[in-house]
Amino acid sequence: MAASSERRRRADIVRYWRAVEMFSPQKVEQASPPKGVYPVESGRPLPWEDGHPVRRRSLGRNMVRQHTVYCGVYPVASVRDVLLDVFGGSEEDHDARVDGDSALLAFEVTDEGLLVQDSITFSACAWATGRSRKPGPGARGWLDGFETEAEACEGVVLGVGDGKMTISDPASGRRQRPFAGLLCEITVGAVGGALNAALGPVLGDLAVGAVSGAVDAVADRGAQGSTGSQDDGSSDDSPLDEDAADAEDDDEGPPRLGEKPLTVRDLSAVTRWVAERFGVADDLRPETIRVQCKSVSRRKAGRSGGSDFLNSFIAADLDLVAGSLGKDDPGPALRDYLTASSALRSRTRVDLKHEPEAVIAGVQPADFPLGRWPAKTEHPLVLSQQFAVNRIVAQLADTEGVYAVNGPPGTGKTTQLRDLIASVLVMRAEKLSELRRPEDAFTGRPHRWSTGTYQRSVASLRPELTGFEMVIASANNGAVENVSKEIPALESVAAEWREAASFFPDQGRLLLDGAPSWGTLAAKLGNKGNRSDFRNKYWFGPPKEERAERGEGMRDALRTAASRGFDLMGWREYVIRFRAARQTVQDLRDERQRAYEALLDLTGSEAAVTTAREAVLSAQRDVDALRQPAAEARAARGRAQMDLAGPAGRRAEHRRHRPGVAAGIFTLGSAQRDWQAEDQLLAVAEQAARAAYEEHTRTAAAYDRAEAAHRGVLEEARRGLRAAEGHHAQLRATSEAALDRWDTFIPGREARGERTEEDARELSSPWSDPAFTQARTRLFLAAMDLHRAFIEGAADRMRKNLDAAMDVLCGDAPKTLEPEVVLAAWQNLFLALPVVSTTFASLDRMFAGLGPRSLGWMLIDEAGQATAQMPVGALWRARRGVIVGDPLQLEPVVTLPHTGQQALRRTFGVAEEWEPSRTSAQRVADRLNTYGTWLPAPDGSEDDRVWVGSPLRVHRRCDDPMFTISNAIAYDGLMVHGVHRDDDYAVARRGVWWPVSGGRASHGKWSPEEGDCANVIVHRLVDRGLDPERELFVISPFRDVVAGLRRSLCRIVPRDRVGTVHTTQGKEADVVLLVLGAGGDKAGPRAWAASAPNLLNVAVSRARRRLFVVGDHDAWRGHQHFDVLARQLPCISESEQAAMRELAPPALAEGCRCR
Q1: How many helices (H) and strands (E) does the chain have?
Q2: Under 8 Å between Cβ of 408 and 971
Q3: What does the alpha-carbon distance between residue 975 and residue 888 come to, in Å, rounded to a whole number?
Q4: Residues 6+ apart with CB under 8 A from 415
Q5: Domain final residue, candidates 694, 711, 746
Q6: What's the structural domain count of the chain?
């Protein structure tokens, strides 16, 4: 019962998150003709109609246009307004981070205007918003039934696409709002003359019969996928036509399209019908329509891209996982992640900030992974980074679960991640080195399938070669892209190692669009476009005529390798090199471990010598104490012996003269009686003397025995002392040799200079001396050489396997493939491409067909920006999760207000701790860590302190005062400053605060005077050499301030360099200009911005060199966190202001109006 109850609890959490996700729609691009997004307007042609501007654009060879239509575009902020009205709530969304637009429905249209029938998507968010009004959250199951409703509505849209729905003008006298500028509505034309029904604003429940013909069309759709099978002996190969690399399965059949070109009236009527059907026409005012135009290959024309254009990217995956959790154990990673906090309270936690000895113990040489990323030898990981990598490998390499790392800005999260990747690849190389030949890696008969004219096969890997797959996942596109580009880039390898670093560099260069690469270690995958792009670049490579210059794709590289044949001796040589490199590292590691243990034991051994000496002295004292009384006892025994000799002699003499019989007769017995009497007297005297003697003998013997025993103790103590002194001498010699050899690489021997002991310790790299560091690097490079030798040694099999993997990757394999076949394809791809990256949004579609615990390592980046529910599908599919992020950056936005989250939570019976607005993926993971530290609560209370896992502490991005501000307001001094720059940054010698009084005229939170000051500062910086396109961000907490800044600065600062604070999260620039706004009496917005350190922390930590602030100094310095900013950043004087104004051009009266 307990197990089933726990399964239900976990499943309910995920179901609750899935319900919350209904209110998290995808965004629709703003209308922008240069980007191919056009508004639909009455009286103007549609993009598939003659006369539209897009038709004047040229197309590539074998390319055609296809269009995505977004009907009923609405601001996402309107959803939040409705929900706040329904659920209530006191919080004010000052930063309006719930921005952008979504739409009621979307679908694709061919360049002839025909509806692509399997592309229709309806907005779950819009539907749920309508349901929040009616029947309302008080009704049972008020969020149930979206799929059924969407299916029915889809029938109507299909009917419009087939011309089976009549579009008419509204009845006279009815007041209606125009949609796309038109007043029109749908009338359902009865299929086969069955019946007509007007479906306007007065429509009640959908008349199913009226649209049954259209709905039947939904049921009739579906591609016919071929099935996979075991090896039937047929041959397999990749397509001969390389230009068809992006082709879909030929056996899907012709695309299913509508029967008539869609018109503006069709689109307008469909939009009106859905808006009124969902009950959101008045609340969301979804009256506009947009069309996004794109080009696709002619082979793909009329086929859906397979994406859900409008709804939460992860809702369907949460539904899948929830169903699985209700029946099966999810595996340790997700099980740990969903552990209730109440079950964690008994766990022991180690506060690494206050228990440095635990950190030092965690970086002892024996705990170091064998391999290391080929960075500069003189730049090994610092203490906290190495501790995190060591703990991750120690805790997860042979088991499963989750480990959390707290990575404040600029603390080297990617650097640490690279070392972890190197460690995992060395572990896999150890398994590869056990193969007699590469072909032995594959087991069983290959799985085969056919797709039209193509035949594919993939062989499964031995289990011991799996579990090393690495996926980098994040909510942030930029985060995964940066890591994916950095890892294979040649710049990521230090110059000293570049000659030795080579893992298919030609293909790596193709992935980096010609940029230098050392190997194909990582690639950005994720959405279908990225996956297709990867296949074209990596697998097929450039056209034949360009290959001599640009290099060949991996498929041809494997063909070339296969043509050379397998070299068994060459394979064995790579194995021998790898094993030799591994043995070298192990020997060096063991040597340093002995030194570590010697240094650790040295103090103890000194104490042992002292103790042994005290034991000798004590034993000697005991022996000495016995010497006098023992001698006295022996002397007394001698005297007693002498005293016994007289009486004994006298009696013996007396007994020789005993009277005979005759004497007795003659004396009538008196002689006998006299003799006996004297003998008795002599006997008494002898007995007394003898008793004394025996007593003294016993005493002397006891002293002899005691003295012998104490002498034995003394001898044993002397032997113990000799042993302790010998052991100590050995440890001292080992320690002295270690200190001579490794000096500052030994904990406690750090070069301090002017730094505190704590700072010096955190900046150190214990045991990472050049010899050990170089050996670990060489082992990693040998591991990659072994991987390459394996792939080339099994080139023919790997080419077939990867051909199949490319089909699986790009969605071209049959949908009916068994999960183990899909898994085999992915596992083979990870052999050739060790790391792939994806956003959470694309993860479930990319890994379609993979079940729980399919992947080895899920490396989640920027987890502080991810909602708690985002990593669920990733962790469900993984054996191990490494979750890296910072809960003190800006946390993720949840459209559903807190009051709405509470209402849903109660519906699902879920604990308060799982509300998305209360936590993030990072906070959920941090709870699980034994090793971490406490950060203060925003209000300073002890109860709300934040436990963060395994913190990275050395900051290497920001100069002061930005570092000091961030460290003080968010991290309680946790970080250590590791920035060392030689220049003083001539563009600006210092950053300043330009105070602007809030009492002057302003518009909302925007102050034109602040905009004027910002304009002066930017012009001054540009005059001194600042490049605003690359080296500057202008940011504000508030959107209306940003809007004003864009008007004020648009002639000098690019639009994408001006934004709210949250738009720059994860980015950095040499100079940041923070324009605060909300001066004077705008206390509410200021209080919101200062309610937590996150916003200001992100703002100041974007700036590498200088920070400038413009705003009401007197008003802002009275708020927490901003008081630190005010103390650290000096105000510019009035004379300096005047001087700067003279150098800057005059501001435009109303701001710039240029577009």
Answers
A1: 36, 27
A2: yes
A3: 13
A4: 373, 375, 381, 385
A5: 746
A6: 3
Residue spans of alpha helices (H) in 433-511: 477-486, 505-511
Farthest CA pair distance, the chain: 181
Residue 1014 token pair: 């910002």
Report the C-alpha gap between 792 and 629 in whole angstroms. 89
Beta bridge pairs of residue 948? 933
Radius of gyration over every alpha carbon of the chain, rounded to an integer in angstroms: 42
Q: At what angle do helices 568-656 and 770-793 cross, to 10 degrees?
A: 130
- The H or E element containing residue 788 is helix 770-793
pLDDT over 70, % of the chain: 90
What does the buried/exposed string (b/e) look like for 488-517 if buried means 16 or more CB atoms within 10 Å of the residue's CB? bbbebbbeebeeebbbbbbbbbbbbeeeeb
Domain membership of residue 84 (yes or no) is yes
Residues 11-46 as b/e (b if ≥16 CB within 10 A, e otherwise) read bbbbbbbbbbbbbbbbebeebeeeebbbbbeeeebb
- Mean pLDDT of the chain, nearest integer: 88
Residue where a domain terminates, one of 713, 746, 779: 746
Is 664:672 a contact under the CB 8 Å cutoff?
A: yes
pTM score, whole prediction: 0.86
Q: Is the pLDDT of residue 247 over 70?
A: no
Report d(CA 592, CA 598) in Å as an integer.
9
Query: Which phi and psi (to 5°) does residue 363 adopt?
Result: -115, 25
3-state secondary structure string across 625-687: HHHHHHHHHHHHHHHHHHHHHHHHHHHHHHHHCCCCHHHHHHCCCHHHHHHHHHHHHHHHHHH
Check if the beta carbon of residue 248 is closer than 8 Å to that of residue 303.
yes
Question: Cβ(321)–Cβ(37) under 8 Å?
Answer: no
- Report yes or no: 415 and 533 within 8 Å, Cβ to Cβ: no
- The conformation of residue 179, written as its DSSP 8-state character, comes to B
In angstroms, rounded to a whole number, what is the distance separating the alpha carbons of residues 767 and 595?
Answer: 10
In tens, the pLDDT along 857-909 reads 999 999 999 999 999 999 999 999 999 999 999 888 888 888 888 888 988 99
Residues 20-37 pLDDT 10s: 999 989 899 999 998 899
Kindly report the number of other CB atoms within 10 A of residue 939's CB atom: 10
Which segment of 298-307, 594-603, 874-883 scores lowest on mean pLDDT? Answer: 298-307
691 and 617 in contact (C-beta within 8 Å)?
Answer: no
In a domain, 1121, yes or no: yes
Q: Is residue 367 part of a domain?
A: no
Please provide residue 1116's backbone torsions phi and psi, each rounded to the nearest 5 degrees: -80, -30
Domain with 306, as residue range(s), is: 25-221+254-311
Strand segments, DSSP code E, in 1076-1128 are 1103-1111
Rounded to whole angstroms, how far apart are CA atoms 132 and 138? 9
pLDDT classification of 236: cutoffs 50, 70, 90:
very low
Q: Tell me the pLDDT tens digit for each residue of 752-811.
A: 777 899 999 999 999 999 999 999 999 999 999 999 999 999 999 999 999 999 999 999
Taking CA atoms, 1064 is separated from 85, 387, 413, 992, in Å, by 31, 30, 18, 21
Q: In angstroms, rounded to a whole number, what is the distance separating the alpha carbons of residues 113 and 65?
A: 10
CA dist., res. 1128 & res. 249, Å (int): 63
What element of type H or E holds 186?
strand 185-188
The CATH number covering residue 970 comes to 3.40.50.300
**Beta carbons within 8 Å of 506's beta carbon, 6+ residues apart:** 551, 552, 557
Residue 183 placed within a domain: yes
pLDDT above 70 for 917: yes
Contact 242, 118 (CB under 8 A): no
Give a three-class secondary structure readout of 834-862: CEEEEEHHHHHHHCCCCCCCCEEEEEECC
